[in-house]
Structure formats: C-alpha cells, structure tokens
Design goal:
Shape: globular
Radius of gyration: 21 Å
Order of helices and strands: EEHEEHEEEEEEEEHEEHEHEEHEHE
Strand order of the largest sheet: 11-10-13-8-9-12
CATH topology of the largest domain: Rossmann fold
CATH architecture of the largest domain: 3-Layer(aba) Sandwich
Bound molecules: FE2/S2 (inorganic) cluster
Strand content: 25-35%
Number of strands: 19
Length: about 350
C-alpha cells in the first residue's frame, strides 16, 4: 500500500510506494533529502517523524539508537512508512548543505563515443553514494598532486555510476592518459561534489536558455535529466532551450539523446550550431558561434535565466553580450568554464 508523506518545513509531499524507503521515494520524485551511504551506516539522512509510524528497517544500531527512536528520529534511507507520515527534514538545495568527500572509485566502463570524446563511468565503493546537485563537478586527484575537474553528467537520482565526459585535446596530459592508457577497473580518487553551477529553483515557471560548447554539455545533461525527472513527479514545466555549439558535427556527441528529449518534452527545444562544419558533415542547421545564435533569436532576455558552460571565450562573450545587448539580468546568468589544464575554476 502506498503512503503519503508531508515534509516539513518545505511543505513538499511524497507518495511512497510499497517496499520503498522514504529516501527512495524522495529521489524518485526529485526531492533532495540529504544522504550519504544509503545503507543505515552514516546517519546523514536522519530526520524526525512528527506524525505516523515507520518500520525503521535494517540499520546500524549505533547510527540510530533506541533512545533516538523514542525521541522520534529515523534514518530515511532505511525507514519504511507504515502509515501516512509527517516528517521533519532539512532539504538539500544549496552546495553548503552537501558534504564534500574524498572517495576512491573504479572505472566501470569507458565508451569512446567519438574520436575526441570518452564517456567514463565510475563506480563508487559498495557502501558509498555521492550526493550532488545537478550541474556540479568532481576533481580527479592525480598521483602528482594535480587535479583534473570533470562535470558530473548523470542526474542525482540516477547515481549508481558517475558519468564523466572527457575530451581529448593536444597537450592534455590527463586527456592523453584517458584516451591511451586508462582501462576498465582502474582506480581513481576524487574529491567532490564541487561548484555552484546548478539549477536554481526560482522562478518555478521561468524560461531557461542553456548554452553549451563541446563537453560543456555534460553538466547541462545532468541538469536537464534532473528537471525532466522532477517534471514527471511534480508536473511543473519550465520552458527550456538548449543551444549546443561545436566546430564540427563530431563535437556534438550525444545529439540522438537530445533529439529524443525534444520529442518527449514539449517544453524543451534543441538548437545545434556549428562554426566550422566540414563538407562531410552535410550540415543543414545553424552556423556560426553558439552564443550568436541566441542573440539572433532573442531581442530581449529580460525574463530568462541563462546557464552557460564550455570554453571561456564562449562563456565570457555570452555574459557580456546577453547582459549588455539583451537586458539579461546579471544575476540571471550562471556559468561554468572549461579550460584545458584545470577546468571548472
Ligand atoms: S544515508 Fe547513511 S544512514 Fe542513511
């Protein structure tokens, strides 16, 4: 039997299906409750049951003691509702709410989807999950003490693996490692989640333009998959357009997926833009720089938010031209910059 849950103080509601924990329902419905291990060991998900009954589930007795249960606490990653519930819990909606961890991970899969782009799937240790906001990144910690930043390309609800998109470029030592030497089962240490490039909840009915160049698509993929997932459960729909630019067709490496989103979501549209299309690209679409395509299409961006990610020159030009020429509010522009050596400053 399903049970309704009211979360205080946010007022969000959840429907928990039979056999589902409170946290599983929250993740399915796109509500960000805090969590760490998701197996009753760490205590990050502990909250209060204000009204109703739960089965506390399998958990470490030291993480949730009998006294705590008597005081109304429960671990939401293990607790199964036995009735309608009102719970109290601080929802995660800002980076300060999330613990930054250093974790080992194993390369689960390497998928070279074009000559220049590798999709890396990382698996975390069995008792660990990484909570993050869609759009954030991690730093891979290299043996020589250097770091290499990668945006997380999967959405937070879909966190069995961490998906990274790595681009090969001349002189990139880590890129060269990824494309020439990295193999499945390699161990990588990383720190994360990091960064403040994530979707703001407000305004709930606002229009959003995403502008990506190259693998700047990765965090935008995470954000869009998160939004589509939330729409399924919450029903609110923001109008969203993705402009994705590359020099050649090859640089837009996941367009099948994006066209599929466009088919499935009438509030989403996609405009690919190439600046140096090859004759073999047989390109019929928009040409030029990606941010110029936005300028051509909009006389005013006054009522928009823009999320831009990719090469610094694109992000800087977008910020300058959108705010100066199209009245985009300065606090309506969010960006993440990829530079070859460090990326995501
Ligand atoms: S997430 Fe670790 S105890 Fe629930």
């Amino acid at each position: 039997m399903s049970h309704q849950i009211l979360i205080k103080p946010s007022g969000h509601t959840l429907t928990v299906k039979p056999e589902e924990t409170i946290l599983q329902a929250a993740l399915r419905e796109g509500v960000s409750l805090p969590y760490g291990c998701r197996n009753g060991s760490c205590g990050t998900c502990k909250g209060k049951i204000i009204q109703g009954k739960v089965d506390y589930g399998q958990h470490n007795e030291e993480t949730l003691t009998e006294e705590e249960k008597l005081a109304g606490h429960a671990l939401f990653c293990c607790a199964l509702p036995l009735s309608e519930l009102t719970i109290e819990c601080h929802e995660v909606n800002a980076t300060k709410d999330i613990e930054i961890k250093t974790l080992p991970s194993r390369v689960e899969k390497l998928n070279r989807i074009t000559d220049n782009v590798m999709v890396i799937s990382l698996r975390l240790p069995a008792n660990q999950r990484l909570q993050f906001l869609a759009g954030q990144y991690i730093d891979i910690l290299l043996k020589d003490g250097k770091r290499r930043s990668f945006s997380i390309a999967n959405a937070p609800h879909d966190d069995e693996f961490l998906e990274l998109h790595a681009r090969n470029y001349p002189g990139g030592v880590f890129a060269e490692h990824v494309f020439s030497h990295m193999k499945e089962k390699d161990i990588l240490r990383f720190e994360g989640p990091l960064g403040s490039f994530f979707l703001r909840d407000e305004p709930e009915d606002g229009n959003i333009i995403f502008v990506a160049s190259g693998t700047g698509f990765a965090p935008i993929k995470s954000i869009l998959e998160h939004v589509f997932h939330q729409e399924n459960s919450r029903g609110n729909k923001r109008n969203m357009i993705l402009y994705w630019g590359g020099r050649t067709k090859n640089e837009l490496y996941m367009t099948d997926l994006v066209y599929q989103w466009q088919k499935e979501h009438d509030n989403f549209s996609f405009i690919p833009v190439l600046s140096e299309a090859l004759p073999s690209d047989n390109w019929q679409g928009r040409e030029g720089f990606v941010h110029d395509a936005v300028l051509q299409d909009f006389n005013s961006l006054e009522n928009y938010q823009v999320y831009a990610c990719g090469a610094p020159v694109m992000v800087e030009a977008a910020y300058h031209d959108f705010t100066n020429q199209r009245n985009l509010p300065k606090d309506g522009f969010f960006s993440d910059v990829f530079t070859p050596s460090t990326s995501n400053p």
